[in-house]
Amino acid sequence: MLVYVDNKEVTIFAGATALDALRRYCTDEGISLPEGELYDAWGNVIASDSPMCDGRHIFTKSPR
To answer: What whole-number distance in Å separates Cα of residue 27 and Cα of residue 4?
Structure first.
């Protein structure tokens, strides 16, 4: 499944959560897992266990 974290493509497994996507993103980028909230494309705070679907965008900083 293809999702986007901070506008970067990330491939994750079906059934993955926002935290799973964030972990894959950090691994791919070679960075540490950031602390703080996760946001959806509209700037709403989302839970780390929020289910992901193909094409979903999440952000480590509010996109607004």
So the answer is: 14
